[in-house]
Amino acid sequence: MDTVMRLGTENPVVIFSKTSCGISHAISTLIRGFGANPMIHELDELPNGHEIEKALMELGCNPSVPAVFIGQEFIGGSNEIISLNIRGKLKPLLMKGNAIWI
Predict the structure, then answer these.
(1) How many angstroms separate the CA atoms of 51 and 101, rounded?
(2) Which residues are paired to 73 by β-bridges?
(3) β-bridge partners, 14
(4) Are 40 and 66 in contact (CB under 8 A)?
(5) Could you read off the pLDDT of 4-28 as tens digits, one per residue?
(6) 8 Å CB contact between 8 and 69
(7) Strand pairing of 39-42 and 13-17?
(8) pTM over 0.70
(9) Distance from first CA to last CA of the chain, Å, rounded?
(10) Are strands 67-70 and 13-17 parallel, antiparallel or unpaired?
């Protein structure tokens, strides 16, 4: 869990993903569409990816990816990000987290 929290604070937007996950790619594309440049950790390419995946599940991510941190705060998975976007709250959250300045 410590590794996840440390990695989650390295950048204004951090996405834990897997290279084979289409939803993770869609969430990354959505966030990039606002002008943010997320740090993406592909769990299937990391030597400790399995431990990180277990820690994400302990945080409540099921499935484990995508898992998104914005402004050093754990936001959630794809459902939370899409819901925030539909309600018009994703862009303000990205701005508050210093991921975008527009």
Answers:
(1) 34
(2) 70
(3) 39, 69
(4) no
(5) 999 999 999 999 999 999 999 999 9
(6) yes
(7) parallel
(8) yes
(9) 33
(10) antiparallel
